């Protein structure tokens, strides 16, 4: 290249683009804005686990958390780069054991209004399944963000499914005496429970268990009462691998892993909810099994470990969440 052509080339390369290219020859790409479908899959032994995102609620956690102060919650959120009000995932989980298709919780199905549209069914379909294929629904507890998806337009969303719930949970929310004892302005949960479960009960498809119960091969119900009277976790095991489905054992990762004693207004018995959380956190950290949580940022699957204190020793009362590493699989 001659010196003249080199200097011309350099002049061209350094010229402002607007001078060297005709206008609109390369329009800027429009921003797309939409996300990929909200499902995430991994294998647990022979079982296929699919996390399904239903929606994200934005909740004023500084006002909702108890056994703490709003300032402490605000500080913990800020430390974890979380805004307040705080975006809070609503996750459900599908377990294909090879013999059964089990759904753990069902999302809100729009019950939180237009600001939190539900995507559970769309994500279930995007994940390759249909509601008709679900033969079992395990309910951790009967709050609307866990049972909302059971009915659609007055019909069972999962027409071939039997629903399982702890006897103490059914014995509270579908109990006329408990409802009568509750102030009239606080009976919404009872009405919701009837709306979503009566059709299954009438068809003989609402079953209860009492205490630690082996429900199916590899699937065990474990009482974790406190958040609600019959709140339950579900342990799922295949080929030596274990995942514990926590339901609402905790709500705010930025606050409650560090300080598990922090409770929430949604608890029906906060001291019992804390006791269940402390016990299961300690067990999950010690045993190192997988955890799947309803309100940890999607997919809500990971492990917990004791928090390392500044002296290098593990703090026996504080924990750290280690989310699953994203993978596209095989
Ligand atoms: Zn919940």
Automatic annotation (TrEMBL):
Record bears the keyword Electron transport: no
Name of the protein in question: Glyoxylase-like metal-dependent hydrolase (Beta-lactamase superfamily II)
Signal peptide: 1-27
The UniProt record lists the keyword Ribosomal protein: no
Listed InterPro entries: MBL_superfamily_lactonases, Metallo-B-lactamas, RibonucZ/Hydroxyglut_hydro
Listed GO MF terms: hydrolase activity; metal ion binding
Entry-linked SUPFAM superfamilies: Metallo-hydrolase/oxidoreductase
Span of domain Metallo-beta-lactamase: 89-295
Family, as annotated: Belongs to the metallo-beta-lactamase superfamily.
Keywords (A to Z) from UniProt: Hydrolase, Metal-binding, Signal, Zinc
Pfam families: Lactamase_B
CDD domains recorded: OPHC2-like_MBL-fold
Classification of source organism: Bacteria, Pseudomonadati, Pseudomonadota, Alphaproteobacteria, Rhodospirillales
Domain of life: Bacteria
């Amino acid at each position: 290249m001659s010196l003249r052509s080199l200097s011309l080339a350099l002049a061209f390369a350094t010229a402002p683009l607007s001078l060297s290219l005709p206008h609109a020859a390369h329009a800027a790409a429009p921003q797309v804005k939409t996300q990929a479908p909200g499902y995430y899959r991994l294998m647990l032994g022979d079982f296929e686990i699919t996390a399904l995102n239903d929606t994200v609620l934005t909740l004023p956690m500084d006002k909702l958390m108890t056994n703490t102060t709003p300032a402490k919650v605000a500080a913990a959120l800020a430390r974890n780069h979380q805004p307040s009000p705080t975006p809070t995932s609503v996750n459900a989980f599908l377990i294909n054991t090879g013999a059964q298709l089990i759904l753990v919780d069902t999302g809100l199905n729009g019950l939180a209004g237009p600001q939190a549209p539900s995507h559970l069914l769309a994500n279930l379909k995007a994940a390759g399944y249909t509601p008709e294929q679900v033969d079992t629904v395990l309910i951790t507890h009967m709050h609307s963000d866990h049972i909302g998806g059971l009915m659609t337009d007055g019909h069972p969303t999962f027409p071939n499914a039997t629903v399982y719930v702890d006897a103490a949970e059914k014995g509270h929310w579908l109990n006329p005496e408990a409802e009568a004892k509750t102030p009239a302005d606080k009976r919404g949960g009872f009405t919701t429970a009837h709306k979503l479960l009566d059709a299954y009960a009438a068809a003989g498809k609402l079953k209860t268990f009492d205490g630690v119960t082996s429900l199916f091969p590899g699937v065990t119900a474990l009482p974790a009462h406190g958040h609600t009277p019959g709140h339950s976790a579900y342990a799922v095991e295949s080929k030596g691998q274990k995942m514990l489905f926590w339901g609402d054992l905790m709500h705010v990762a930025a606050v409650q892993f560090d300080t598990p004693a922090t409770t929430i207004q949604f608890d029906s018995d906060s001291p019992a909810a804390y006791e269940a959380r402390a016990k299961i956190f300690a067990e999950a950290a010690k045993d190192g099994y997988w955890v799947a949580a309803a309100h940890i940022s999607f997919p809500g699957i990971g492990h917990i470990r004791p928090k390392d204190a500044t002296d290098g020793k593990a703090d026996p009362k504080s924990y750290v969440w280690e989310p699953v590493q994203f993978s596209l699989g095989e």
